[in-house]
Amino acid sequence: MIKEARMRWLTPLALAVLVLLTTVTPASAEPEGTLTLASPVVRGGEAIEAAYGTPRPHATNWLGLYTDPGNGPVDQKYVGPSVRWVYVTEASGKAALPTDGLDPGNYIVFALAQDGYQWFAPPVKVRITSSAPLHFVTDSFDLRNARVLAPYQATVGGLVRGDTDGLAFRKIDGPRWVQVSADGRISGTPRLGDALRPRPLRVEARNARGETGTATVGIDVRPPGHKLVPELSTMSLNLWHGGGQVDNGREKQLRFLLKSDVDIVGLQETSPASTRELAESLGWDHHQVGTDLGVISRYPIVERRPPADGGPLSVATRVRVRLEPRQEVVVWNVHLGYTPYGPYDACFGKMTEEELLANEERSGRTPQIQAVLQEMRPDLAAAWRTPVLLTGDFNAASHLDWTPATRRCGYQGVPWPTSVLPEQVGLRDSYRVANRDPVADPGITWSPIYPVFTGGYGHDSHKGEPEPQDRIDFVYYKGPLRVTGSKTLVEGTPKAVPDHRGNEWTSDHAAVLTTFKTAWF
To answer: Coil, strand, or helix at residue 45?
Structure first.
């Protein structure tokens, strides 16, 4: 869910600015000011020292730090929130941007005018290096499955953080068939005995300073005649502006994904680079669509749908994942429109069912899901052979949760179109298959960090009231898959906004994880 009223604490920008009501000079004009950095490389925890100058000083001129690539206003328009910012009010001067809690990597500083996004000086790039000791993001994790007598490859090279200068890997202990190269590649060809007598792999990483980190790595070796992936784990995860709203977000995301032992993840709010960066660190395959949607997969993506250029299908993407030659699965991933938001209209606005459904249409969600399901028709028709998954942030509730038993906000039931329509074409809500009672298992995904309503959306009079908590993230399926479990996930006990920066959990949504028994072939 993207909610502009909830992003006011993220930047120095008022809601009016978020919709770009502030204009200084035409965006095509060359910026007249200057911006320089004391150093192009900064060690994590040290401030980025900047010097600036402008012939148009203003009390609300500001510097914004963004990941590169990321949410930065490269076209002098709002894309997403900065990770750090500071006002620069004089005609010239110096300013410092803190880097505490930021992931190592490439960033860019934008000099922006009057609480808006027009540049008053050309942006400058900077790299933040790590000051942390060398370590694996988690000390125990599993890699993709291996097959007896089939060549195997994976990598742990992207799962180390800290000072990675001169980084090299080696095998400490483990199965004889496994080799570990200096760059972290895992390879070899297992034999039958490796399936019958599995052993964990121990890997060491060492940097140029002599610091070391170790991890225990599991590889499930599958015998001949057995499925390579007997149980498939699928997740829907909203990254919340790529994960940059929480300190050390990328490392925490990686730790969470490894701990979850998931195979395929539909991502929303990815920013331009998060899908690729997560996949490369994990050694997985990926597909990125624009700045919002992505899919990452432990197993190869063999078919990718090109992004739609506008219209209702621009909120969806599709991939085909090959688990092995005769095992494939089609994955659709969506991020539907966010406003007006149905639970607000119901719980605060007390609208009639007719009014609620009219607003679902106005939000774009109803035409979006209709267009996506129409586009899915060939895949759904072939689902008996190749299973189909539909993951996503639907920004809408489910009719399976708004029932006479739950009486949410006093309603006996609401036929929310984004859940009714998938059901009508044969898709099943995996969470409700595994957890049939919405009273006992509400499965709330919005929101672990917004316990109270923060205003906006025509309901400001309800600001400070309890946030309508609801299930708006889903994993649907059709085909020869059997649900073995489904749950919502967060890490730790997240603190509410605005005290969220130190959370272990990196999103404003809970994730949904469903495991399936693969019943085909």
So the answer is: coil
For residues 180 and 105, membership in a common domain is answered with no
Predicted pLDDT at 6: 32
| Whole-prediction pTM | 0.90
Residues contacting residue 312 through CB under 8 Å, at least 6 positions apart: 364, 367, 368, 370, 371, 372
Q: Give the 3-state secondary structure of residue 460.
A: helix
Which residues, other chains included, contact 201 with Cβ-Cβ below 8 Å and sequence gap of 6+?
171, 173, 174, 175, 178, 180, 186, 216, 217, 218, 219
293 touches 316 (CB < 8 A)? yes
Nearest-Å Rg of the Cα atoms of the chain is 24
Is 101 in contact with 133 (CB distance < 8 Å)?
no
Where would I find the beta strands (DSSP E) of 386-452?
Answer: 388-393, 428-429
pLDDT value of position 521: 45
Residue with tokens 């130190």: 502
Answer yes or no: do 332 and 216 share one domain. no
Query: What is the DSSP-derived secondary structure letter of residue 60?
Result: T
Determine the Cα–Cα distance for residues 264 and 259; give it in Å rounded to an integer: 14
- 151 with 300, same domain: the answer is no
Amino acid at 293: L
* 349 Cβ contact partners less than 8 Å away, ≥ 6 residues apart: 355, 458, 459
Q: Quick one: tokens of 446? A: 């919005």
pLDDT score at 15: 35
Cα torsion for 456, 461, 464, 467, to the nearest 10°? -60
Same domain for 181 and 97, yes or no, is: no
pLDDT at 458: 82
Full domain range(s) for residue 256: 231-518
pLDDT tens readout for residues 47-77 = 999 999 999 999 999 999 999 988 899 999 9
Residues near 354 by beta carbon (within 8 Å), at least 6 away in sequence: none
The amino acid at residue 83 is: V
Structure tokens at 496: 């509410």
Task: Give me the sign of the Cα torsion angle 417, 421, 424, 429.
Answer: negative
Q: Which regions of the chain are under pLDDT 70?
A: 1-29, 520-521
| Residue 313 CB contacts under 8 Å (≥ 6 apart), including other chains | 368, 371, 372, 375
Provide the pLDDT for residue 87.
Answer: 98
Looking at the chain, the number of H-run helices and the number of E-run strands are 10, 31
